[in-house]
Protein: F-box LRR-repeat protein
Organism: Musa troglodytarum
Amino acid sequence: MEGGRRWEAMPADCLVDVFRRLGLHDLTLSVPFVCRCWRRASLDPGCWRRLDFRSLDFMPWSHFSMSFTSRYRLSSLSFSAFMRFVVARSRGSAAELLFPLSLGASIQDLTFVSIKCPRLKRLALPNNYMLEDDLRIPELVGRWRDLEQLEMETKPSSFLETIAVIGRSCSRFGRLKVRGLIGKEDAKAIVDCLPNLSHLELSKSYLTKQELLVIINGCRRLERLTVKDCLGLQVDDEVVRPASRINCFEHEGSKLLDDYGYETDESEQQSGFFYWVLASDDALWSNLFKERWGGDCAAFYAPTDPKSWKDVYIVQHRCDRFGLGLRIITEGNDYYLIHQDCSGKELMPSQKRVHVK
């Protein structure tokens, strides 16, 4: 506007204060290409303190990937390459880093970040590490002495060790988010290792009232506790009374029974065996399939006879929800359900495989 202030004439510190509020998409594809002074300001490490990769799509055909490769004249784009690009611009000042949930991130990326981003206060991990990588999480997380918040969409097999390391190494730690089977040992470890937690989120986990009470009674400094949509949990007066001292206690959607009317106990979850739901009525099965999963499972497994696969879908769905590795294998013309760890090692003896077809 004529006679008005020009954005490009703003002091650099003011531009940095504006740009630090933007996401990585704008910082890499928009701001640097407006004018030279905006580009210079965007290179300030203060603009790169929050590295949130979860809003970006790194698939080759995505708008973001195609735009980035075009702007920077690249033949292709991977998450690892992009992560190193923005981490370099942060120059060690990054305070928050959120890995994408399931695409592209590796344990090598986490190792790189532990070296190049030593001042992290918030870390959100991906949910697709292999078992041998999963076991390295405690070592790497322990490098961030200033860590205050950790988010894990899937509980790693090294959860107990991770919590212990945080308790020893991260004196300012106060916020934890994790999803999975929260057993007796897990609840006790949270209380023993992280007694000063202020925020804890266990939503969409398998959690019983006994374990929840251990946490409520042991973590006396909790200000916010979220256990929404948990299975194995019915919040009654026995829970509400001690939880009343917590400023915010959210438990909507939690229930004892699963979607099919069966109560599931902890030993069942730990072993990977589940009650089977066999819908004898084809119409009922069809409706269940459409309501729960749409067409994704059918497209992925491409069953030739859906009626004989209904138990596969249900058990697969429930295992995935609780982070258990149920997979389908074939031997000749036979199909079997097997229970695997994250590295693909079969956990159940072959004689206990479930014959599906």
About this structure: The domain at 7-250 is CATH 3.80.10.10 (Leucine-rich repeat, LRR (right-handed beta-alpha superhelix)). The radius of gyration is 24 Å. The longest strand covers residues 325-331. The chain has 16 helices and eleven strands.
